[in-house]
Amino acid sequence: METISETVVAAHGQDGAPAGESFATLLEYWARRLGDEVAVTYLDHRAGADGRAVTLSWRELDDRVEALATRLATFAAPGERAAILARQSADYVVAFLGAIRAGLVAVPLFAPDLPGHAGRLTAVLADCAPRVVLTTTDGIDAVAGFLASTAIERPAVLAVDTSASVAAGERSWPRPEPDALAYLQYTSGSTRTPAGVMLTHRNALTNARQACDAYAIETGTTSTVSWLPLFHDMGLILGIGAPMAAGVASVLMDPLAFLERPSRWLRALSASPGAISAAPNFAYAYSASRVTEAEKSYLELSRVVSLINGSEPVLPATIAKFHGAFADCGLRPEVHRSSYGLAEATVLVSVTEAGKAPRQVTFDRDRLAAGLAAPAAPGAASTTLVSCGFPAGQRVRIADPVTGALVEPGRVGEIQVNGPNVGVGYWGLPSESVAVFGLPPIDPDSGAGWLATGDLGVRHDGELFMTGRLKDLVIVDGRNHYPQDVEQTVETHPAVRPHSAAAFAIEREDGEAAVVVVEQAKGTEADVAAAAAEIRRTVSTAHGLRPYDVVFLAPGEVPRTSSGKISRSLCRKSYVDGVLTARRLG
């Protein structure tokens, strides 16, 4: 039997995953090559405002992963699930890689004390039926109590930070097959039971290497810096996957540490030469508005290599605001890298070119809503979109979402993706897997179908522009409205807290109607009824759409995802259920 201790990393082919390779085998290779160099740094801000650095060298990380994998082998058989219920930490990295080395299917999740997500966690655990749950010593009681409160079959619970050292060469591990499952990446599931995307070693390694190529992640010259949750697709690949693929150091912090003080993220970028990081669009605007002049005096951002902006539509105003705020700190415009991706494709699909600021194009708003991307004439209502660049080693096409037929360049349609980074389906959902992952016809080259992303986009001058989500389109009186356009208009009102608006459609007896939910700006004494009336008039004038309802909430009350983004789908559900209307101001 061939073992991972008998070989080093083979040269990878086009699919990025030669037989027997995984994130865990790559860890062993880098541990041998880089030894005592730092592999993972976790900035623990619970211990103080400036954070305490917890580090693991490549050798230490490999030793701990080996010890955990050896323990896991006594609790679970290869192919069984190992769920990770822990806070962001270096221990989380150990848990994920340890599960993979033991041949288990890792399920990256979160600690049960994450506010507002207990229902989702229960649903995911019931769906994946883990044989073992991995956590830390300080979280084991909370995890055990949470599991006892559910009806799921009780798995074994292990604290990954109590493993004893294991002597080198004590155990041999079978080399994984490229198409064996590596982990389940669960989608948000804000309006339905979360779905677990099945990702193989081939999928994960391919996309990790695509990310390394796209963002210039290179051994010895760069490092990744991330506050994104490790249970999210981008957080996992940026924080663990790409570092394992390229042998680069990873600097991690908790999402709450960023939200409390965004300057922490920027100081970590300053302290990491050749830094590469990522965040959703809102985080860039949030940082620009919250970092003080005194905090900027500590920042040196000229050595940042790539700042990835993705996971929600990229707004031109956000890029301008962020660059304007930190240009004097050495930030270069060309480091902004607008990207598009989704969990079903592991994460990364397309990205703008290196060394160039992302391209922006101003389109005619009405024609874009009607499905045609045409540059706006002077004086016409317009929408400016930021390019998502070019495919990162995979194929992308635009198709009619109903018929599946390809549309002409310049026409809006559903973005569809084909490549070895695309997952193999949803865990336990064969019908949905065929519908989403296996659109006919089957591609003759890859033997796989085209992934139906559910996202709308258009090719313009060869570049991909994302226009919105199919499920988020607001369709009233037969006209399409992109919610982000409405939200940007709404947030110009002084009574609305920045980055708090959600626009969505609800079903009524006479058809769909638009609803807008916002948070009241802090420190304002505005008459919310009068402000709501003004917002209705403004939206009606700008978009030809009169909202059926405008709901003002207190700051922090608009539903968000675990990474801080506004969740339109959860807003819609909470509104229909009466939760938001019961909290409305005025």
UniProtKB/TrEMBL annotation:
Ranges where the AMP-binding enzyme C-terminal domain occurs: 472-581
Keyword Glycosyltransferase: no
UniProt cross-references to Pfam families, sorted A to Z: AMP-binding (PF00501), AMP-dom_DIP2-like (PF23024)
Every AMP-dependent synthetase/ligase domain range: 28-427
InterPro entries reported in the protein's UniProt record: AMP-bd_C, AMP-bd_C_sf, AMP-dep_synth/lig_dom, ANL_N_sf, FAAL/FAAC
Similarity comment: Belongs to the ATP-dependent AMP-binding enzyme family.
PANTHER family listed in its UniProt record: DISCO-INTERACTING PROTEIN 2, DISCO-INTERACTING PROTEIN 2 DIP2 -RELATED
Keywords: Fatty acid metabolism, Ligase, Lipid metabolism
A GO cellular component entry from the record: plasma membrane
Identification of the protein by name: Fatty-acid--CoA ligase
GO BP of this protein: Actinobacterium-type cell wall biogenesis; fatty acid biosynthetic process
Listed GO MF terms: adenylyltransferase activity; ligase activity
Record keyword DNA repair present: no
Top-rank taxon: Bacteria
Gene3D superfamilies: 3.30.300.30, N-terminal domain of ligase-like
SUPFAM superfamilies: Acetyl-CoA synthetase-like
Organism: Amycolatopsis thailandensis
